[in-house]
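User: Hey, my collaborator sent me this sequence without any context and asked if I could get a structure. I don't really work with proteins. Can you help?
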Amino acid sequence: MRKAISALKTRTPDLVVAEFMYGYGNNYAGVNVCNLDVFLYSLQKYAGDTGIIVLVDKSEYQYVEKLAALFPLHAVLQHPVHEQDIEPFLTDKAADGV
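Assistant: No problem. I've predicted the 3D structure and written it out in C-alpha cell form, which is a compact way to encode the shape of the chain:
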C-alpha cells in the first residue's frame, strides 16, 4: 500500500481497481472502514478525478456502502468478476474523458 501511495505522487491513474476487505474489529477506533481508506484518501489528494472500481466478496458486499459514503465509487463488482463485467466501466471512464 505504501508503494501505491508513493506512486500517486508521480503518476495520476485514470482508474483504480481494488479489492475491498472490511475492517472487522480493527484497531483504528472506527476511523477506517476497510483496507482501502488510507489509499483512497491519498488518491483524493493527488488524483481526485480518478475512477474507483471496487471488487468485493459476496460476504462483505453489505459493508461497501460505508466506503461509498466516504468516497465516490465508479463501480462495485461482486466476485466472481470477469473481464466482461469490468469492460463497460472502462469505456464509461474513457467516455468521461478521465
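In plain terms: The chain has a mean pLDDT of 87. You can pass these C-alpha cells on to your collaborator as they are.
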